Amino acid sequence: MKIDFDGIQALVVIAELGGFNRAAEALHITQTALTRRIQKLEQYLGLKLLNRTTRRVELTTVGREFLPQARSIVQDMTSAVERLKDMSQHATGQIVLACIPSMTTHVLPGLIREYAARYPANRIRLHDGSSDEVRQSVLGGKAELGIAVQGESHPELQEAVLFADPLVFVCRSPHPLEAEKSVRWTDMRDNDLIGVSSFMATRIFMDYQLAKRGIRLQGNYEVQHHATAINLVAAGVGSAILPASTIREGDRPGLRKIALTNPVVKRKVVLLQRREAALSPAAQAFRDLIQQARFEV
């Protein structure tokens, strides 16, 4: 059913201003156009809403009964449109962001603080999960934007590379390698390594890059999340190979973050959104912010 909003608005303005002439001026249309709106509405309803003579215009009995509801329709529509205009002009609203957990350690909190400072009225809902879960959230429309590790491309997803995140060696002092500025992957074979699950995107990427060079590492421990690996290293359980963005030098007393070379392996962190899907003003503002950011890892 098609609602004739123009006709309902015309009826309300005529009733409030008491005539066609002033109503037409208020709506910035001609009296002829205004008359057509009323006639179209009456024809659609099959009811007479206005009695019009050469001297005056008055509502019919049905028109008077309908007027309060008509006012409510116009007021609700006007308020809704004004809210949308405000969202467009000031990027207000809610954003749902899907993100891999490793980005929530250092990278994302700084961006969220800056976003909150710029748009204090906005809400952010964060869905953290694996790269595959992030992709599914964006594809399924549960999140407008996603931050994940670059993987196999999808025809319905648009990807923008945010930064390259090198893998580093993390150990606890005292350790035979703690004084080194960089270490080789082959040096890892004699370490008690805490590995991240082989189902995680970073681990899959690392194993592939090393396999191309004939390097294979086997950890004594396996965890699901980078934060868990950091906690175990801090507790003296072993050492770990982690993305540089997950830990900063000095974050944990006694922990060392050392560059890994031969080869240098970097995962690419990407920003995801659905192709052909328009972002809400709030999400577009966040996208603009993150694309302007400088990432230090």
From TrEMBL:
InterPro entries: HTH-type_LysR_regulators (IPR050950), LysR_HTH_N (IPR000847), LysR_subst-bd (IPR005119), WH-like_DNA-bd_sf (IPR036388), WH_DNA-bd_sf (IPR036390)
PANTHER family for the chain: HTH-TYPE TRANSCRIPTIONAL REGULATOR YBHD, NITROGEN ASSIMILATION TRANSCRIPTIONAL ACTIVATOR-RELATED
Gene3D superfamilies, A to Z: 3.40.190.290, Winged helix-like DNA-binding domain superfamily/Winged helix DNA-binding domain
Organism phylogeny: Bacteria, Pseudomonadati, Pseudomonadota, Betaproteobacteria, Burkholderiales
Name of protein: LysR family transcriptional regulator
The keyword Transcription is assigned to this record: yes
SUPFAM superfamilies: Periplasmic binding protein-like II, Winged helix' DNA-binding domain
Residue ranges constituting the HTH lysR-type domain according to the UniProt record: 3-60
Keywords, in A-Z order: DNA-binding, Transcription, Transcription regulation
Family the UniProt entry places it in: Belongs to the LysR transcriptional regulatory family.
CDD domains registered for this protein in UniProt: PBP2_LTTR_like_4 (cd08440)
